[in-house]
Design goal:
Structural class: alpha+beta
Largest sheet: 4 strands, mixed
Strand order of the largest sheet: 4-1-10-9
Order of helices and strands: EHHEEHHHEEEEHEHEEEHEEHEEEEHH
Oligomer: single chain
Radius of gyration: 25 Å
Strand content: 25-35%
Helix content: 25-40%
Number of strands: 17
Number of helices: 11
Shape: globular
Length: 384
């Protein structure tokens, strides 16, 4: 599996990310021809080899431009470009992350929002360039190290604001961050959106056979080198490994029929699974342990749902490690009708188990008026 690991040594911005991808093998001419497909005059862009200490990489010099766009105009420019649909989709998604964060911190709707500095054409160049560069390498999975941010205050079009800016913090919620005692904007909102959109929020990488390394170089002068480093390589096809949150609470004052309905609402909030276990509580009372599995993206919504829908006043939360088989779902046509089958593969890409979708079996059995098990056994035999 083609994998990208982002190592933000001293922060990340859109132009540094493009510089790192170019240094790793993304041809500058391909990048330039891609952004020139925007229906706008493109400022001059020059890749410059720059050194930070013993490290040499690519610094992207983008000529200053007075072109500013509304949010709708930015989406329209992306949509009208004659490039791969997947590249446009990734660019739109990163822009949406920025818009959502800005809208939330300013407490206004998307229609009322103006992006100020981020409305410059540079933002579109960054988003499209990064999306196309990652597409160029055929990246399937992205990881990132902890994201550095500065401290103190910085000056923006809004005046002097805390560093890192609120929009950057909003985008990077749930990601590992590290703060340096420098009054510099080490990670920009665009850089944060790249991390949020592409990377897993983990401070580790899988086994990686490195094929190329790239350095995007900035111009800040400090004790640390102002560089962004990327590794591109292959990971073996193995069982998917990731982290998941477990939320638990013990309940002895709710009827089980209500807890079943609660589980449905918690799943709707984004839970991967909900489980019930009998437990003995204070004074020998029989209770229920409600255990919920949830990923990073839905953690807050699921926590809110558990508090809202149950009688509990407290929950336990822990970070667990899980390992799952590589999966593939196929639609199989049988003599009884179409059935979706899930296939599970081990690290050698060998199928070691299958599972038929129960709702398909149920629907066909109900239509034919025969027992579920009878149809299940017949379909399973036919598929084998």
């Amino acid at each position: 599996m083609k994998t990208l690991y982002i190592d933000p040594v001293f922060g990340i911005s859109g132009d540094m990310m493009i510089g790192a991808l170019i240094h790793a093998g993304y041809p500058f001419e391909v990048f330039l021809n891609t952004v020139k497909k925007m229906p706008l005059p493109i400022p001059e862009i020059i890749p410059e080899r720059l050194s930070q200490g013993v490290i040499e990489g690519i610094h992207l010099n983008i000529e200053r431009s007075d072109i500013h766009l509304t949010i709708d105009e930015m989406y329209k420019v992306i949509q009208e470009m004659d490039i791969q649909e997947s590249v446009k989709s990734h660019a739109r998604s990163m822009l949406h992350i920025i818009v959502e964060a800005e809208s939330k911190i300013h407490h206004i709707s998307h229609e009322e929002l103006h992006l100020h500095e981020l409305s410059n054409i540079d933002t579109l160049i960054d988003l499209i360039g990064v999306a196309h560069g990652i597409h160029f390498f055929g990246i399937e999975e992205v990881f990132s190290g902890p994201v550095p941010c500065g401290s103190g205050t910085i000056r923006t079009s809004h005046g002097i604001i805390p560093n890192p800016p609120p929009v950057t913090l909003e985008i990077l919620k749930d990601f590992n961050m590290v703060f340096f005692q420098v009054n510099l904007e080490l990670t920009t909102p665009t850089g944060a959106a790249i991390i949020r959109h592409y990377a897993r929020p983990l401070n580790q990488t899988p086994v990686l056979r490195i094929e190329s390394i790239g350095y995007g170089v900035g111009t800040y002068k400090s004790e640390r080198p102002d560089v962004l480093r990327v590794f591109i390589g292959d990971t073996p096809h193995e069982r998917q490994k990731d982290h998941i949150w477990t939320i638990e609470t013990d309940i002895d004052d709710m009827d089980m029929e209500y807890l079943g309905a609660v589980a449905d609402r918690v799943r709707d909030a984004g839970a991967v699974d909900c489980l019930f276990f009998p437990v003995y509580m204070k004074k020998g009372r029989l209770g229920v342990r409600f255990s919920v599995l949830v990923g990073d993206d839905s953690l807050e919504k699921v926590k809110d749902a558990v508090f809202k829908e149950t009688s509990t006043f407290g929950i336990r939360i822990r970070r667990d490690f899980r390992e799952v088989l590589k999966r593939e779902i196929k639609k199989i046509d049988t003599s009884f009708g179409a059935v979706h089958v899930k296939y599970g593969y081990n690290h050698q890409d060998k199928c070691i188990k299958t599972h038929m979708e129960f709702e398909d079996i149920k629907g066909l059995a109900d239509k034919m008026g025969i027992p579920y098990k009878e149809l299940y056994d017949a379909v399973k035999k036919e598929i084998k």
